[in-house]
Amino acid sequence: MSQETTSSDMLTLYGERFSSRLLIGSALYPSPAIMHDAVQASGAEIITLSLRRQLASNAPATGSGGGSGIGAAAAQREANEIWQYIQQMGLKLLPNTAGCKTAKEAITLAEMSREIFKTDWLKLEVIGDDYNLQPDPYGLVDAAAELIKRGFKVLPYCTDDLVVCQRLLDAGCEVLMPWGAPIGTGQGLLNKYNLGSIRERITQVPLIIDAGLGAPSQAAEAMEMGFDAVLLNTAVAKAAEPVWMAQAFKGAVEAGRLAYQAGLMLKRQTASPSTPTVGMPFWHQSK
Amino acid sequence: MEVLINGETKQVSSATLQAILEELAFEGDFAVAVNSEFVPRSLYSTQAIQAGDQIDVLSPIAGG
User: Fold this and answer.
1) Is-contact A195 A180, C-beta < 8 A?
2) In terms of CA atoms, which chain B residue is nearest residue A47?
3) pLDDT > 70? residue B6
4) What are the distances in angstroms from CA A139 to CA A72, A145, B5?
5) Crossing angle between the packed helical segments A242-262 and A216-224, to the nearest 10 degrees
């Protein structure tokens, strides 16, 4: 493959083209400044973010409750700082519906996101279980269908279940984001058989491995399997040196993509010499 | 009257969403839901609020 061909290898999501195949999250970094530097080092063009209750308004708490303490004010300042950094970076915003447990909650949060972030792109999350944060396939499909009717460009975070993926396609999703492993676990591609089946069966839309990646080698593996991109957060944010880890993932995603395009050799059961045997000196032909 | 703002009970004297948001001095980028239903910004001034209503004022944060 020529250099020219590989350099024009773009990721197309809902009609928009991106040169980076690494999507990155904005959470859990040691500081907003490190978040900014790590995201830039990753080369990502798409960043995820979210919405939460504003922790402290300027008015004093007049009623009962009154939880707007100093801790809440500091947390709100940090949230504001992160949002300022994100706006400055000029990346494509991908708001999520993290924490939503029903289709209705996710739809309400999606509408609020669309107004604030001025984008109809959405990483749709409908969580079915608190233990492993597994997507609820029923709520996810219902929410996706309704949001697509309302004009959203839905990127659903889903399990590695082929039939759920097909139902999301039926609902109108033009990108799917199956998990590699549960969010924040760093376990890598836990079910390669399922993921491989999804990739083989669903070739008409881009597939992004979202969540569960802990090491650059795992991201490279996903790309070698033919996935179109990866989305990760914790693996970079919780590294000892997030900026270096962002660079490492960038390289791994590029290497994995190039390897996929180059075509991996077939695995074989037995050894086969790589150095030619013809002309071998001291050859013991009698054995 | 008493309303629930972001999960906290507060006394407010205004009767529309617009006035309550100003009264409580919310600022920056935010979006609002009343009783778990999204209220577009264009409807703040006409959205009536009653005692006991639950108002959620959400702002951008980091996310994965």
Assistant:
1) yes
2) B64
3) yes
4) 32, 10, 27
5) 20
Q: Which two tokens stand for residue A118?
A: 């001025």
Interface contact flag, B26 A54, Cβ < 8 Å: yes
**Residues of A with CB below 8 A from B27's CB?**
57-58
Tokens of A46: 């798409």
The backbone region for A25, taken as left when phi is positive above 0, alpha when psi lies in -120 to 50, beta otherwise, is beta
**Residues of A catalogued as catalytic:** 123
Count the neighbouring beta carbons within 10 Å of the beta carbon of residue B29.
16
Interchain proximity B11–A105, CB inside 8 Å: no
Q: What is the pLDDT of residue B27?
A: 87
Which secondary structure element, helix H or strand E, spans residue B18, and what is its range? Answer: helix B17-23
CA distance B17 to chain A (A): 15
- As a whole number of angstroms, the distance between CA A29 and CA A44 comes to 16
Residues of A in contact with B41 (CB under 8 A): 115
Closest approach of chain B CAs to the CA of A55, in angstroms?
8
Residue whose entry in the numeric block shows the structure tokens 């919310």: B26
Contact B59, B24 (CB under 8 A): no
The tens digit of pLDDT for each residue in A169-190 reads 999 999 999 999 999 999 999 9
Q: Is A67 on the interface with B (CB under 8 A)?
A: yes
Pull the structure tokens for residue B1.
């009257």
Residue whose entry in the numeric block shows the structure tokens 């080369």: A43
Distance from CA of A65 to the nearest CA of B (A): 5
Q: State whether residue A108 sits within 8 Å of chain B by CB.
A: yes
- Residue A67 pLDDT > 60, yes or no? no
Task: Give the residue on B whose Cα is nearest the Cα of A113.
Answer: B31
Considering just the CA atoms, what is the radius of gyration of chain A in Å? 22
Among residues A92, A127, A124, the alpha carbon closest in space to that of A107 is found at A124
